[in-house]
Structure formats: C-alpha cells, structure tokens
Amino acid sequence: MRKLSKSRLNFCIIIAIVLFTSCTKNFEEYNTNTSGLSEKQIAADYQNLGEPMKQAQQNIISYTDWIMQLEQNLIGDIYSGYMMSATPFEGNSNNMTYDLVDGWNYYEWDYVYDNVMKPTQNVLEATTEPQNASFHAWAKIVRVEAMHRASDIYGPIIYSNYGKSNQDGSVTFDSQKEAYYAFFIDLDSAINVLTPLVQNSAPSTFSKFDLVYGGSFEKWLKFANTLRLRLAIRISKSDPAKAKSEGEAALSNPGGLLATNDENAFVDIGTNYHPLNGISSWGDINIGAPLACYLNGYNDPRVSKYMQAATDPAVAGQNIGIRSGIDIDANGRYVGYSRLQEFPNKIQLIVAAEAWFLKAEAALKGWAAAGDAKTNYENGISTSFAQYGLNATSYITNNTGKEQQYIDPKAITPGQNDVLTGSPYLSTITISWNDGDTPERKLERVITQKWLALFPDGQEAWSEFRRTGYPKLFPVVLNKSGGKISTTDFVQRINFPSTEIDRNASGVAAAVGMLDGPDTGGTPLWWAK
C-alpha cells in the first residue's frame, strides 16, 4: 500500500475482509481431510496442531507490509520515536498529528483476533490430553506474546472470555489488570510444562512447525521466562507486589532467561521480505528524529546498522530523522532524510539484550535473583552490539556523550527547532554507569539503552516510554486531537475500534468504564499510571 488515501483505504478494507475470511476458512480446514490423509494420520503427524501454530506465529506481527503498516508502523513505530513518515496522509491530519484515524487503528484489533487468538484457541481446545501438553504450553506462550501487545495498545481486551458470548450476544472484556493476571496464569502453566521437558531432555514435538526456534523446548522456556519478566516489569508501578512475585518467579526458574544472541526470538518469514522494507520502499517511513539524535550524540556505531545517510541536498550525508507531528506539505519535503536499512526476512519478537536490561531494572528494584544492576546493564549493551557484529568496550565507558540537539533546516512551523540544550525534552543522560546516581537517573540510563537495543520493535519501545517517560522524546508540533491528547503527556493509547463497537457495543461500553478516563488517546493505561 503506497499511500493511505481514503479510496485506497476502502480498497484495502475490502482486501482485508477477503484476507480475514480466507484465514478463518483455512483454519477451519486444518481439521478436514484436504490432503488425502485420514484424520488419524493428520493427528499423528501433529498437522492439526502445527499448521494453526504457524499461522499464529506469522501474525504476532504481520509480515504483510500494508497490514503491518496499519497495525504497528503508524502507531508504535511512530510514537516510540524510532520512525516518522514523510507522507502527509489525510491532509496531514492523522495519527502522527494526534488526529487518530479509526480506519487505520482497527487493524491490530481485528487481525490479532482472527490470526492469533482463533488458531491458538483451537489448539488449546485440541490439546487437553497429556501427550499434547507441549503444544498446549506453546500455544499459551504465543498468544500471550501477541495479546499483551494488543492490550498495550488499547487497554482492556477480550482474553479470558474469548469465545464466550453473553445472553445478549456481547462478549465481556477483561480490564487490563485482569488481562495481565490471565497472561501470568498462562505463562506459569506453560513454564511448568516446559521446565521438566527441558530438564529431562525430552524430544521436540513441534520442530516442523516452529518458525522461531526450530522446536527447541529449552529456548521456548527461556522465551517464556523473559516474557514473564517483561510483563512483571511492565506492571511494577501499578501493582508492585504482583510484579515482584511474577518477576522473581521468572528470575528463579532453572530454565533461565534469554542471554545470548543465538537465543534471540525472530519469526522466520521464509522468502517474504520484511514488511518495513516494503513500507520504506514506498517512501512512507523514515527514521525518527529522536533515534538519530541519540545515536549521533553517543557516537553509536549501530547508527549505520539502523539507518541510511540522508540524500536530501539540505542534509546530504547526515544521519538525520524526521520529527513527529510536524507540518508536512508534501512527501518530497522529507523523503530524502535518513531511511531505514534493509532488514532480513525475519521479524523480531524478543532479543537477549532486552532480557539483560530487564534484569538491570529488576536489580534496581531489589528483586531476588536479579544480580547486579551495573553488570546486567553493561551486558545488555554488549549483547546488543554483538547482535550487529560490533564491540561495545569503549562505548560502555563513555561518560560524556549526550543526546544531540535537533535542528531541522527544512522546518515550516516557527518554533519547530526550539528543542535546545536545557529543554525538558532533550536528555542529558550519558552512557557509563555511575553508582552514585539517583535511582531515577539510573532508570533513565537503563531504559535509554534498552530503547536503543529494542529497535525496530516500536510497539514495545512505545510501551516502555509510556511506563517510564524514557527515553526523553520530542513532543509533536501540531496537535490536531481537539484537546483529547496532551502535547506534553504524549499519546497514551488507541481508542477502541469502531468495528468492535459495531459488533459488541455493550461489551465495549463496559470496557470504557474500566478505563480511568474517556475512550481517547489521552487516557493512560492501567500500568502507566
């Protein structure tokens, strides 16, 4: 999808309906005899369980470029500060300028339910026998990974009541707190299944269908523990006792966390190209100004791994991004700013560097088995650098580098460049660990380096920014929300989509009541309060 005009959106909606219908149809056919094999033969080869799991893995983040553009790129990737579009969609009144576009923002909701919840639910229902326990555990882990991302966009979601209708046909939402508690129950259940399988070196049952780890129980256990720690840290401000309990359970499990880059979780999408490559080739996405400013200010060698130098004559050869929410009169004004580097044919879910930064924050909180904050922090940096074939030795000791100030020579709006030294939106945090710093400054240091290591997963980076306020980002220049979203507090969530309101009005109405505010982009999520 090259441009998101209204006519193009209508066309894409039609295609989406066909796609979703097709996915559902294919799923129903997994349990039918379409290959000449008997039902018994299919079950014996795990095809009835494995094929739905392939579908679920491939759609945690869609590898189809225009779908990924709508479900994540024009939401989390932008709001995280990683990226910004040079295209003035909808007359420059769109998500980037806080005029949230419902025709874009329902995709994550509809797509994840059709393509992750549906297939994993059927796998869970078909794996109640002990011999299928590994598939049951795997399905729970995959659905938590997908659905926590959805909850981190909208807040309350349909999770524990999925597939259950009330007498009036509505479906009851979980509050975000209830959803997170359900996530922890599912992860605990899955971990309890995988732990003895790993300890006993049990042979894999799903290697033919695993697009992440090739069937490794050991790595999926590490993934589950790391995901549990991620979610525990996520709720640590809003529910510190529960966070500590779940976090320490993850830290103490004998299976451990992701620790090295050979354990990174990427979904193999085969011959399909990475969706960001397609979006970038259209000229619809560039690097965001904050990412370039941090990398430049730190003299970070990952800059050449993340972005291409600008080609616009006004900034040629520079690593410079586009500031979010600015006045863009035409695509040509900024399309020559730094573009993304090409990505391989795999989609990032969790990397080992994140696990080290999670441990660093857990150590700052005094959680048992978290280790030393400084050691974990430096291991996080080193692991991220090693992921790109780089050495972090000198970088870790840099105690002078700070975020570069941003000056845009092509700015239209007066005051757009007023992000100067001393501004509350420009960070003074350095790289080298300092035990004498305040706890808050240590947290900023951890989250800033974690943010740099999470790239290009803007959804997770946006969640961490909303939770902590770090790294410091530049506010939008044009706020077209009509007062619904604060410029200084940034966008906090996406409102419930009209598609769900149309089919589940009373369920959505009850979900709105679970929010601590109106159903707008300015209401903070439960874990961000």
Describe the fold and architecture.
The protein contains 22 helices and 4 strands. The chain is mainly alpha-helical. The strands form 2 sheets. A two-stranded antiparallel ribbon has the order 1-3. It has a two-stranded antiparallel sheet with strand order 2-4. Helix 9 (133-154) runs antiparallel to helix 10 (176-199) and helix 11 (217-234) runs antiparallel to helix 12 (240-252). The two termini are 36 Å apart. Residues 1-38 have low confidence and may be disordered.
Which features does this protein show?
single chain, 529 residues, mainly alpha, two-stranded antiparallel ribbon, two-stranded antiparallel sheet, 22 helices, globular, disordered N terminus
In short:
The chain contains 22 helices and four strands. The longest helix has 24 residues, at 6-29.
Give me the secondary-structure topology:
Elements lengths: L5 H24 L9 H6 L2 H12 L6 H9 L2 H4 L3 E2 L4 H4 L9 H4 L1 H19 L7 H22 L21 H24 L17 H18 L5 H13 L12 E4 L6 H7 L4 E2 L1 H9 L5 H4 L39 E5 L1 H13 L8 H15 L5 H4 L42 H16 L3 H11 L29 H6 L1 H10 L15
Antiparallel strand pairs: 1-3, 2-4
Helix pairs in contact: 1-8, 3-8, 3-9, 4-8, 4-13, 8-9, 9-10, 9-11, 10-11, 11-12, 11-16, 16-17, 16-19, 17-19, 19-20
Topology as a string of helices (H) and strands (E): HHHHHEHHHHHHHEHEHHEHHHHHHH
| Distance between the ends | 36 Å
What percent of residues are in strands?
Answer: under 5%
Mean pLDDT: 92
**Count of DSSP E strands?**
4
- Low-confidence sequence ranges: 1-38
What is the structural class?
mainly alpha
Rg (C-alpha, Å):
22 Å
C-alpha geometry: globular
